[in-house]
């Protein structure tokens, strides 16, 4: 997997993933909620 992606402006952004493929049922929603909460706090 690529470490970063090049945008049409030439800027590079890191590739980020939560790695949720092998999680227990019911835990994905909590992880996504926590990730969005952190990201929105940093905007």
Report on this model:
By secondary structure, the chain is of the alpha+beta class. The chain has one domain (4-41). 33% of the residues lie in helices and 14% in strands. The protein is built from one helix and two strands, in the order ββα. The radius of gyration is 14 Å and the shape is elongated. The chain starts with a strand and ends with a helix.
Show the helix and strand layout.
Layout: E1 4-6, E2 12-14, H1 28-41
Antiparallel strand pairs: 1-2
Adjacency order of strands in the biggest sheet:
1-2
DSSP, total strands: 2
Mean pLDDT, all residues:
82
Secondary structure category: alpha+beta
- Roughly how many Å apart are the termini? 26 Å
Largest sheet report: 2 strands, antiparallel
Principal-axes shape call: elongated
Uncertain runs are: none
Helix content: 25-40%
Tally of discrete structural domains: 1
The quaternary state of the protein chains shown equals: single chain
| Topology as a string of helices (H) and strands (E) | EEH
**Number of helical elements:** 1
Determine Rg (CA atoms, Å).
14 Å
InterPro entries: NAD(P)_OxRdtase_dom_sf (IPR036812)
């Amino acid at each position: 997997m690529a470490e970063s992606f090049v945008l049409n402006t030439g800027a590079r952004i890191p590739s980020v993933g939560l790695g949720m493929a092998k999680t227990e049922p019911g835990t994905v929603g909590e992880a996504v909620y926590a990730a969005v909460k952190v990201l929105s706090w940093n905007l």
